[in-house]
Specification:
Layout: E1 5-9, E2 44-49, E3 58-63
Parallel strand pairs: 1-2
Antiparallel strand pairs: 2-3
């Protein structure tokens, strides 16, 4: 099984202006079939920033 995450936020300063390219989400903010118990460090991830209309002006590839 190939695992890949998609992390989406409309938070100001994410993902494009976070210090040291490091951030976190509290587990209560995770949706879908993912919980804190099954997140795997180093998993390929697409980080998506959405604007106020919900459109994604930018996205980045990375790892959790």
């Amino acid at each position: 099984m190939i695992l890949k995450y998609i992390m989406v936020t409309g938070f100001e300063g994410h993902w494009d202006r976070i210090p040291n390219n490091e951030t976190s989400y509290p587990y209560r903010m995770l949706k879908g079939d993912t919980s804190g118990e099954v997140l795997l460090n180093g998993t390929p991830t697409v980080f998506v920033k959405v604007d106020q209309s919900g459109l994604p002006p930018k996205a980045w590839n990375g790892r959790v």
